[in-house]
């Protein structure tokens, strides 16, 4: 065939461009195919919230498809959000009438990443007539569960694969997270293992995967190769998520301490002057208004010295003062809610005490984990069980085995002598309070500077961590 193949995406418009037809067209262009589009809906959304979806009139969708099919040699079509089964049926039949050989990949989006329900009552039995005309459907685990009757996913898989191929995305499964499976009629399933567990909830990742499969198919690859390469492409997309590198090379978080707000600010200033580049403002037992005032001052200090500022607990304060992020504990606002309020630009850290905590949190789009306590400390009340060095070694090893790579910092009673052993476990760094608090009048700044530089170096020497 001459020139680059043409692919059509029939999907919704996302004004932020992360999903829908814009994401599809970007993917197609990236993979060297001509992208065409027919818009099925105008949505009002950002990458964290979908507020509204206005469906395109079915007649208008048909007209868009007709003009494109009549003007270009379209080889493959990716279908995204569709108002209902009637519209889907019309589209699928129109495409096949125009070109019986066209490859149709349907990404059955039942629910957006931000929780908006498009369809919640469709079952596989309603889809038989449509599936007969599709080449491939690409549901995720939640979607196959929703399509199944009485939770019988095995039966749903059998029903689908007797009609078309099925690429079941494993990002939401609990048992073998990230394991995608290609089911083809009359052939053994093919499993695609995850490289890393990344945040598969990233807005638009399903759109990217299905349009990449369509592109690779149109470029002449087999279905199995197309799925494998599309998974690799989507992995790169997820790995390049905005903010993923935000904490690269940042290894020491200072947690503020003080009996008064002024003392917190004085300690923060000392740390910044001495080269600290990551500060957490942690003020307990003060009204939010006072935390807000302190945060306003802390932002100015951190900006002046080029340090990142995290606010403990108070999401609205972090947003109001333009801090760099928040740190959330088990009893604070859930990370997903915080992300909706803060948007993609903020760093969100969360507290964990076990591998299971981290496994759960890694799927919620947070940027780092504070894992602890390392040992008993007076700085925090109601401590979780102490982990000790053995606990960190075990948990970090379990994370490697589970391919969960999220920056983890150790916290709780950590002293200078602990840095060497802790840095060898694969941690990104440490969060400390007492160790660096109350130092240190200007005359001892050089001592503080040296201490901070030494801690930072311990963790920056660990290649595995530095590359994350
Ligand atoms: C880096 C870091 N890790 C853990 C914590 C503890 O947070 P949380 O569990 O919310 O407890 P409080 O700090 O709010 O008492 C943290 N602050 N920072
Ligand atoms: C906030 C927090 N969360 C677990 S331990 C801790 C306190 C860390 O401070 P220190 O370094 O003084 O033990
Ligand atoms: Mg907290």
From TrEMBL:
One Pfam family this sequence matches: Phos_pyr_kin
Instruction: Tell me the pathway.
Output: Cofactor biosynthesis; thiamine diphosphate biosynthesis; thiamine phosphate from 4-amino-2-methyl-5-diphosphomethylpyrimidine and 4-methyl-5-(2-phosphoethyl)-thiazole: step 1/1
Keywords noted in UniProt? ATP-binding, Kinase, Magnesium, Metal-binding, Multifunctional enzyme, Nucleotide-binding, Thiamine biosynthesis, Transferase
Catalytic reaction equation(s): 2-[(2R,5Z)-2-carboxy-4-methylthiazol-5(2H)-ylidene]ethyl phosphate + 4-amino-2-methyl-5-(diphosphooxymethyl)pyrimidine + 2 H(+) = thiamine phosphate + CO2 + diphosphate; 4-methyl-5-(2-phosphooxyethyl)-thiazole + 4-amino-2-methyl-5-(diphosphooxymethyl)pyrimidine + H(+) = thiamine phosphate + diphosphate; 2-(2-carboxy-4-methylthiazol-5-yl)ethyl phosphate + 4-amino-2-methyl-5-(diphosphooxymethyl)pyrimidine + 2 H(+) = thiamine phosphate + CO2 + diphosphate
Provide any one GO MF term from the record.
hydroxymethylpyrimidine kinase activity
Q: Which GO terms describe its biological process?
A: thiamine biosynthetic process; thiamine diphosphate biosynthetic process
- Cite the binding residues for 2-[(2R,5Z)-2-carboxy-4-methylthiazol-5(2H)-ylidene]ethyl phosphate: 377-379, 413
Q: Name the CDD domains on file.
A: HMPP_kinase, TMP_TenI
Residue ranges annotated as transmembrane are none
Put simply, this protein is called Thiamine-phosphate synthase
């Amino acid at each position: 065939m001459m020139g680059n193949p043409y692919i059509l995406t029939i999907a919704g418009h996302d004004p932020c461009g992360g999903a829908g037809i814009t994401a599809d067209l970007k993917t197609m262009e990236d993979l060297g195919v001509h992208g065409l589009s027919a818009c099925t809906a105008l949505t009002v959304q950002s990458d964290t919230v979908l507020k509204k979806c206005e469906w395109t009139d079915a007649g208008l969708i048909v007209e868009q498809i007709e003009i494109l099919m009549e003007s270009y040699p379209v080889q493959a079509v990716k279908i995204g959000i569709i108002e209902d089964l009637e519209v889907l049926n019309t589209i699928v039949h129109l495409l096949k009438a125009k070109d019986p050989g066209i490859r149709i990949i349907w990404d059955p989006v039942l629910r957006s990443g931000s929780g908006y329900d498009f369809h919640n009552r469709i079952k596989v039995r309603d889809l038989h007539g449509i599936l007969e005309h599709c080449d491939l459907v690409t549901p995720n685990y939640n979607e196959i569960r929703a399509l199944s009757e009485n939770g019988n996913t095995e039966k749903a898989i059998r029903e689908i694969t007797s009609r078309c191929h099925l690429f079941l995305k494993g990002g939401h499964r609990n048992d073998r997270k990230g394991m995608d499976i290609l089911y083809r009629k009359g052939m053994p399933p093919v499993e695609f293992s995850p490289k890393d567990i990344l945040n598969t909830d990233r807005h638009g990742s399903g759109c990217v995967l299905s349009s990449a499969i369509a592109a690779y198919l149109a470029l002449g690859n087999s279905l199995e190769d197309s799925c494998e390469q599309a998974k690799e492409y989507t992995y790169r997309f997820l790995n390049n998520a905005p903010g993923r590198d935000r904490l690269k090379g940042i290894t020491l978080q200072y947690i503020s301490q003080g009996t008064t707000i002024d003392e917190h600010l004085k300690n923060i200033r000392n740390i910044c002057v001495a080269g600290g580049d990551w500060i957490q403002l942690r003020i307990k037992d003060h009204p939010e208004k006072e935390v807000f005032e302190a945060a306003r001052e802390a932002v100015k200090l951190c900006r002046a010295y080029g340090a990142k500022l995290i606010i403990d607990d108070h999401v609205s304060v972090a947003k109001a003062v333009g801090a760099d992020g928040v740190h959330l504990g088990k009893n604070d606002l859930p990370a997903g809610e915080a992300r909706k309020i803060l948007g993609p630009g903020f760093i969100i850290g969360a507290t964990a005490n076990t591998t299971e905590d981290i496994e759960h949190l890694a799927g919620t789009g947070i940027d780092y984990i504070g894992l602890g306590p390392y040992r008993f400390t007076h700085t925090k009340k109601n401590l979780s069980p102490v982990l000790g060095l053995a606990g960190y070694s075990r948990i970090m090893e379990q994370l490697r085995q589970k391919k969960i790579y999220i920056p983890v910092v150790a916290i709780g009673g950590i002293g200078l002598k602990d840095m060497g052993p802790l840095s060898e476990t694969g941690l990104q760094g440490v969060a400390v309070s007492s160790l660096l608090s109350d130092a240190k009048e200007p005359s001892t700044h050089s001592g503080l500077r040296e201490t901070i530089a030494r801690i930072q170096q311990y963790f920056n020497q660990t290649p595995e961590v530095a590359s994350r």
